[in-house]
Prior knowledge:
By secondary structure, the protein is α/β, with parallel strands linked by helices.
Amino acid sequence: xxxxxxxxxxxxxxxxxxxxxxxxxxxxxxxxxxxxxxxxxxxxxxxxxxxxxxxxxxxxxxxxxxxxxxxxxxxxxxxxxxxxxxxxxxxxxxxxxxxxxxxxxxxxxxxxxxxxxxxxxxxxxxxxxxxxxxxxxxxxxxxxxxxxxxxxxxxxxxxxxxxxxxxxxxxxxxxxxxxxxxxxxxxxxxxxxxxxxxxxxxxxxxxxxxxxxxxxxxxxxxxxxxxxxxxxxxxxxxxxxxxxxxxxxxxxxxxxxxxxxxxxxxxxxxxxxxxxxxxxxxxxxxxxxxxxxxxxxxxxxxxxxxxxxxxxxxxxxxxxxxxxxxxxxxxxxxxxxxxxxxxxxxxxxxxxxxxxxxxxxxxxxxxxxxxxxxxxxxxxxxxxxxxxxxxxxxxxxxxxxxxxxxxxxxxxxxxxxx
Length: 418
């Protein structure tokens, strides 16, 4: 009888396990990180941990190459087969929410009270997405370069003014030690332009879209401040401060090879600079008159509008917000941990860590790109305008044409709900 009792117990236990597994409702997750082994390992661990932590939901992960991800989501939306959980690039989120791809998150917002502002995807007064990291840009140089050129070391509380920044570029140019004084990153295109360069415009006092109404670019992309910005931007290339055409290899290694005195680059490239030079330093953005600005918002998680299980999808996202996962992403791929606790536990962003400066920059200088569904069009128009101006186009005419194109798109789409 004892053997039959044991066998019955084993069979009953197996049945219970099977029942539990069957009870888990499957949730689909689309992710943009295919091809990044470290990133894939971390997101895979979160999925595995979540699935094992409870008996209601089982997340199934499908990853896409980043370059094809947005097109895959749009195609999926048109075909009516979006997953339960999406990740979305922060500035694109308002367009996806307006287009009906996303629904508001139903997580306890107390969980994200101390998250960096750039990680919170808010549109129309509602939280639609939340990020497990942020990204920031700084002026990368060397302490020895500042000393040799006789330059003041700027701080977050006392950044360089426009005049100080241009004097720094003049000093670097006059030294004859560098091929170019300043590398803004012209080898990169697409979202790099509005992310990295519109903060310069915003520091001058302009913007891509008028944020008081979100219904026009008139006056902010072609007003006096924008014209001043455009003239300055063009001068970087016409006066030989920056390379107009740049090989991608030079973007990746030019600073390390001593070609550039200053490089405008992100925290994802910081470890390379620190490896190249033990005196690498990350400086805040210059203040061109209206405060120093840098971009904010990276990839974030949201719930598909078509999900039949938003409570499960939101439960997964809330589970992923644990500090141990935020720190794991930071340590694994170098991005900024979004909470003080996750930063303090990280290798690079803890107090005294080699990339600590980026957390402060993200907290104090970051400005979200305009939170409007029209951003996806405006960003492309802005990119073309800046490329044309860099290549010598008339500043005023180019910015006026950009305003006309952005405004036409806004009008065509009924002001995008504004």
